[in-house]
Amino acid sequence: MRLSRHEWDGRDPAALAQRLRSAVSAPAELSGEVAETIARVRAGGDAALIELSERFDGVRPSSLRVDPALSAGALAGLEPELRESLELAAANIGAVAEAQLEDGSAEIDVNLAQGQRVKQRRLAVGAAGIYAPGGRAAYPSSVLMCAIPARAAGVTRLALASPPGEDGLPQPLILAAAALCGIDEVYAAGGAQAIAALALGTETIAAVDVVAGPGNRYVAEAKRQLAGTVGIDSLAGPSELMAILGDDADLDWAALDICAQAEHGGESPLIACAVEAELLERLEQAVTRIAAQRPSVAEAELALVQAPDTDAAIELANAFAPEHLQLMCADAELLAKRVRSAGCVFCGNEAATAFGDYVAGSNHVLPTAGAGRFSGPLGPATFQRRMALVSLPAAAARSLAPHVERLARAEGFPVHGESASARSGAREDESGS
To answer: Is 333 a residue of the active site?
Structure first.
């Protein structure tokens, strides 16, 4: 674990937040390489996708489309205890997703003073593409986090892409999660080329409307370049954790939480903030000890920040906008009400980020790199859009037309005004009829 120390006087939290982010090395420029990958999939379809899989994944799949029976078999073959845990996670994620839908109206219907009626309907997209990373590990939890909210939103077609292993297929745990979620199509494809295939379509893969799911920086860059061609959930980057520690914080637990996020790789920013220097010193010792004993923990950057008081620590969190924020201090629930910018806030010693990653019911596809200032967790709304419907009876048209004409002429669009006035009978037909 790479450690840095910051004694902070509480002034200008935005400046400190910027320094903390800049301490994590910026990823190499990928736009050209990813653009080439997208162009090859656009031009070559299936053949290009297979060639790129062989190049980047070291496997040439015999078929891009995975037989649904293999997913069903993978689910049936799970150890009973593992299947029980997967089903528990699915049930909790589904309950939270359904509650989000119930909280908002599916249709807004407003009658306005001039007589016009404006409606807004919330509709699911027709097809969603889900990306599940592969490589060193399998991420069935990511399949659940994306597929279940999409189904709750009303999406009728779900397509999953995940990198092929040596046998040319996604990992069995991915296939099992796909079967559990009722995913319609599974494809053996990974990386930027998989995002391109989902967004653009190939001979085998029909294009989708929204692409969601975490991935490496190549996946994030492909989503960035294809945004607009297809909807995306977010540009999620390396996992992040900030922990605010009080006198009653369990420092061994905090150290485990930090090391757990460091399992995601060396680019993950990690911050521990406390008022007392002694707490940070003890945490440093615990992190060093635990990381040394666990090979899966990467050499991530851990910043130890001494703040003048808890209020300042909260303002630093708001400025940094971490993906995960753990409040390991007294009155965590009250303090959480003052947090304005974070992907997900975990309150109290017991609430480790790892619970949110798997089974708590919240979603682990969260904004990173400070995007928590303007976006939030993946949910059903990611897979929905609103459509407006407007109806104007004749009386409303007569009442509103003069206003349209004035505004349109002011903007230099006089025919807009004529279009409105023609409906109102306020202007004679210039043709003389």
So the answer is: no
